[in-house]
Amino acid sequence: MEKLMIAGGRPLRGTVQISGAKNSAIALIPAAILADSPVTLDNLPKVKDVDTYAEILCELGVSVEWNGDTMRIDSGRIRSIPMPNGQVKQLRASYYLMGVMLAKFGEATIGLPGGCNFEPRPIDQHIKGFEALGAEVSNQYGSIHIKAKQLRGAKIYLDVVSVGATINIMLAASRAKGLTTIENAAKEPEIIDVATLLNSMGARIKGAGTETIRIEGTDSLQGCRHSIIPDRIQAGTYMIAAAATRGDILVDNIIPKHLEAMTAKLQEMGAHIYEMDESIRVIGQSDYANVDVKALVYPGFATDLQSPMTSLLTQANGVSILTDYVYNNRFKHVPELLRMGAKIKLEGRSAVVEGSALNAAKVKATDLRAGASLVIAALTVDKGVSEISGVEYIDRGYDNLVENLQTMGAEVWREAEKKV
Ligand code: EPU
Fold first, then answer.
1. For residue range 47-72, what is the model confidence (pLDDT) as tens digits?
2. Which atom of ligand 1 has the smallest separation from the CA of 188?
3. Where in the cell is it found (predicted)?
4. Quick one: which of 77, 80, 225, 309 has the most CB atoms within 10 Å?
5. Which atom of ligand 1 sits closest to the CA of residue 23?
């Protein structure tokens, strides 16, 4: 195990190149196995969750070849095996195997997913979708068993707007007989990315990115080449880090439209933002206004940026209120920020943050974005060295984080954790 050591107080300066989106990649990789010939995915992020998915595919007999940030996935020899345990439990997005294995083999047994368990994360809407398509679903000793003789298109209304359920139903329905309509679908850019890949494979999906998605099923899908969209959450994290350290950075290789809510909030606080075609420059200021932030489904402020944003709000004047309307209780970073001297009170689904200088401390990341929040907090501290354990969570979703921060002038390094 390793920990991150951060001697903060240095403004970030320079350019950071953003990799492909983790939350797209971990849906596109399983989607690729729906094709009967090889699929090539470009612009993959080098993050642990992608490696874990590649290992799961190998267990299924799929051939996975890496070349730089490109992965070639050949499922010519895929076999259908139950996957109750093992790597599927390490990864939230292993639930996509339910949709693809059901579509490909008419049956799947997949252990309930693990991943960042900052609160219970039900998958009832995924199951509702599979059942509507004609599958029988049962829970067998903690694994979901799904079976269907023939998947048939259906009209499905999602009771909650869910990224995972929208994608999983799209995956299964792309090989069902007839038309499936998803109402109240999620609109995140990652959903459009998955629909784009599936359509390049020969699927017929319309409306991705709106609340109504129509999928006309097809009997077979073919290989293709697809480049993954940039990671808007990594980009937003660096934007917040630049503002928090009063730095001046260019976040490059992004789609600025995906970050509109983030950009608007930083401007409201007083940061200077310049938007270009594929990059955003953030110039931090010494004084920030307090703001209220509501984390919502896309195109609202992303819940995945809520924890990093909490750290920035400690640097604002006065009291800010941050409310997460996607998850009730995504606040595992708050007790750790309190150790660093933050003044934060939790009230229901809100964090009430009073601006105050932070101090160096030993803290622990308990999930991916909580980890990012602690890194940003530590970067603002100008005396002492902060130690962040639980780096394995951060490695799940940030490509080259330490190197990127070092290139922009941060004093950050990894150290082995001593066994006690
Ligand atoms: N929900 C249900 N039932 C369901 C599915 C979701 O009640 O069947 C609820 C959840 O509990 C939550 C809300 O609906 O309150 C939204 O959940 P969603 O299904 O959209 O989340 P997800 O698909 O499991 C993905 C990302 C998360 C990101 C959310 C929201 C992946 C693998 N994960 O999760 O990313 O926070 O969408 O945008 O794509 C992260 O990257 O750190 C991360 C947690």
1. 999 999 999 999 999 999 999 999 99
2. 38
3. Cytoplasm
4. 309
5. 39
